[in-house]
Design brief:
Elements (H helix, E strand, L loop, with lengths): L2 H9 L2 H5 L7 E4 L2 E4 L2 E2 H4 L5 H10 L5 H13 L8 H10 L5 H9 L9 H19 L3 H14 L18 H13 L6 H14 L10 H11 L4 H24 L28
Antiparallel strand pairs: 1-2, 2-3
């Protein structure tokens, strides 16, 4: 060991070590667990799970309406059946002899930009339109019109609108109705809701069928109105969908089937390669 390196190590103090993973979230010592300053025993029975999520992410306990809206969004996104790749993967993993935690991780790790990322992307869209309206004075309708023109030119779908399975996502109306009630009561500003509804209205113009908000769009409105950053919107979706992933993995564990593949055993994937041949061919 060089003299300089030894001197650097000698200069490290206990405080340097304890500061290495310093945190403002949890304060843990023997017999003590405090979350953002609250003793955990004082939260048990007084703070709901959504309120505790808010506390850990935001630093303070939420108001009643904030906790209620967060809970609505979390409940709405818990599951979408085995046709969802993340849940199908978790179920397959559960038949392969791995632990429940590994089966859950298999499903969660499939939640990326394409499957599971539309909520964050929609929040980013709402934030961009909101910035154009607030900072540049562009009317909402004009800002949305410009946004949709960009998406049309790039031949891209607007995240958070339309659904490959549901003509009208059944989760849209109760979520947006709850937001509208809070806006009417003066507890939410409603700017992100206004933008999302304008996008929905303009997407429907000239089409034989409307393109309503899906779960990603509706929860994006809630998370945006509640002041969450877009990346946290994705994290909250993953947290919510983990419930469904857990339930499906557990159900599949009880089926007794081993090494369950993506299609039933009598069926085989279509082969499109060369006809049977020998090396000399």
């Amino acid at each position: 060991m060089t003299t300089a390196r030894r001197a650097a190590q000698d200069a490290v103090t206990t405080e340097d070590v304890t500061d290495w993973w310093s945190t403002s979230i949890s304060d843990i010592e023997p017999g003590v667990i405090r979350l953002r300053g609250y003793p955990v025993e004082s939260l048990i029975g007084t703070a709901s799970f959504p309120a505790t999520i808010w506390l850990l992410l935001r630093g303070e306990l939420p108001a009643e309406h904030q906790a209620r809206l967060l809970e609505l969004a979390l409940v709405a996104a818990v599951d979408h059946g085995p046709q969802a790749p993340s849940i199908a993967a978790a179920r397959m993993a559960a038949t392969c002899g791995v632990g429940l935690n590994s089966a859950m991780a298999t499903g969660v790790n499939l939640l990326g930009d394409t499957h599971g990322g539309a909520g964050q992307q929609c929040m980013e869209v709402l934030a961009a339109v909101r910035h154009a309206c607030d900072a540049e004075g562009v009317p909402v309708a004009d800002a949305v019109r410009m946004l949709l023109a960009e998406y049309k030119s790039a031949r891209r779908f607007v995240p958070g609108f339309g659904h490959r399975f549901h003509p009208r996502d059944p989760r849209r109306d109760p979520l947006l109705s709850a937001v509208e009630s809070e806006v009417t009561a003066g507890r939410l500003a409603g700017g992100h809701l206004e933008i999302a509804l304008e996008i929905e209205a303009q997407l429907a113009t000239g089409r034989p069928r409307p393109v309503p908000m899906n779960i990603d769009g509706a929860t994006a409105v809630i998370y945006s109105e509640l002041g969450f950053e877009p990346e946290l919107g994705r994290g909250l979706f993953v947290l919510s969908r983990s419930v469904g992933i857990l339930a499906h993995a557990w159900e599949e564990r009880g089926s007794g089937r081993r090494i369950k593949g993506p299609i039933p055993p009598p069926l085989l994937p279509t082969y499109r390669g060369p006809e049977p041949r020998k090396p000399q061919d």
